[in-house]
């Protein structure tokens, strides 16, 4: 799991901004949000332009150069902070696998250009490499079973960490295998109707086609019914012979995708990805409830907190979701002024289960 993430000089973040998943409070309610002594559920609030989306993109930057998964490189334009004199953005990830810490630090000048990277297992440096000067420290490569690996340090064109993983025999339980399995299964998506995503897989799946192909039409119908959308769905062929999902209204059949609202489209996108929850290591949904009624957003948030196997973080503007009935204070974060702060750290008051978090937030009881 991801223990801590820090980024600096990336887009709007001139100074260092971080999140520490090991920093949580000893609340005796909604304990399901803590797994393996790490926070696995969070909701990020912030004004427009505060950096909610960019923080999620920064967190998923690691997938761009380490794995062959879906990329949305246009999201990573204007990569460096415009006000900074630094020539590279700095990223730091601390992971924990079976009580063993792994720290991966790197610098980039743009989304695809590494400048520097280093890897630590515990407090031991495995390697460091500077792509500009070719200076390196490879003294502890035996820690990842790569002590005999031949490396052309003058001409390496990909991430050294990725090169090591691809050119050594790694046991499935090795630290590198676990690290890359985690990164391979990270998923970012935007809940705005279209299937825009980063990580996890590659290529664009047509959502309706996928539901038909996987025989999930009745499961999907039940999902919509549970969300209050009471439709009867059927799979039929259109005039061209292509299988389509139709909604039945008495004797009439209408092409389902042509008649649904933006909210149902967003809900369908969530359903599509929710089928993978058991495999996703880190899920980040940007503006997850942009088209949802508050009651539906609560249902989805509770569904994720109860059933997600990996870590889940969402962004929203909906303060009605800021409730101890759904999560707990240390799961809610405010991003402002280049800082990401959990609600307990935004106030000197001791927050308890009976507090109305939304009312306190609206009253200005949490400093930004």
Structure description:
- With 368 residues, this protein is an alpha+beta fold.
- It has two domains: 2-200 and 276-362, Rossmann fold, CATH 3.40.50.300; 209-260, no CATH class.
- The chain contains ten helices and 19 strands.
- The chain has helices at residues 52-59, 62-66, 160-166, 175-184, 207-213, 217-226, 256-259, 262-274, 294-307, 357-362, and strands at residues 2-8, 17-20, 34-35, 38-39, 41-45, 89-97, 100-110, 113-121, 124-130, 136-137, 186-190, 197-199, 232-237, 243-249, 252-255, 282-286, 311-315, 332-336, 339-342.
- Strands 2-1-6-7-8-9-10 form a seven-stranded antiparallel sheet. A seven-stranded mixed sheet has the order 12-11-16-17-5-18-19.
- It is globular.
- The mean pLDDT is 94.
């Amino acid at each position: 799991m991801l223990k801590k993430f820090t980024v600096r000089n990336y887009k709007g973040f001139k100074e260092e901004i971080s999140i520490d998943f090991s920093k949580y409070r000893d609340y005796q309610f909604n304990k399901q949000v803590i797994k393996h002594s790490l926070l696995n559920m969070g909701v990020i609030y912030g004004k427009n332009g505060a950096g909610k989306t960019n923080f999620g993109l920064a967190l998923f930057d690691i997938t761009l150069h380490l794995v062959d998964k879906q990329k949305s490189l246009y999201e990573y334009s204007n990569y460096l902070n415009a006000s900074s004199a630094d020539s590279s953005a700095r990223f730091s990830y601390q992971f924990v696998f079976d009580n063993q810490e792994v720290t991966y630090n790197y610098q980039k000048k743009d989304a695809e250009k590494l400048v520097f990277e280093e890897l630590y297992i515990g407090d031991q440096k495995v390697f460091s490499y500077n792509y500009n000067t070719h200076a390196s420290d490879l003294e502890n490569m035996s820690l990842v079973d790569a002590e005999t690996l031949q490396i052309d340090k003058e001409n390496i064109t990909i991430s050294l960490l990725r090169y090591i993983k691809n050119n050594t025999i790694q046991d499935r339980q090795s630290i590198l295998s676990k690290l890359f399995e985690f990164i391979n299964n990270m998923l970012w998506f935007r809940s705005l109707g279209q299937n825009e995503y980063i990580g996890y897989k590659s290529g664009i799946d047509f959502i309706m086609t996928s539901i038909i192909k996987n025989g999930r039409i009745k499961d999907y119908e039940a999902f919509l019914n549970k969300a209050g959308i009471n439709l009867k769905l059927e799979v039929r062929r259109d005039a061209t012979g292509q299988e389509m999902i139709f909604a039945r209204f008495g004797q009439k059949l209408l092409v389902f995708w042509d008649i649904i609202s933006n909210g149902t489209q967003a809900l369908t996108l969530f359903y599509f990805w929710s089928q993978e929850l058991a495999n996703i290591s880190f899920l980040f949904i940007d503006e997850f409830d942009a088209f949802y009624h508050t009651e539906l957003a609560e249902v989805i948030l509770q569904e994720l907190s109860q059933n997600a196997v990996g870590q889940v973080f969402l962004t929203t503007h909906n303060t009605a979701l800021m409730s101890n009935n759904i999560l707990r204070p240390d799961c809610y974060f405010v991003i402002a002024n280049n800082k990401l702060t959990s609600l307990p750290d935004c106030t000197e008051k001791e927050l308890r289960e009976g507090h109305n978090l939304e009312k306190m937030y609206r009253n200005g009881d949490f400093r930004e």
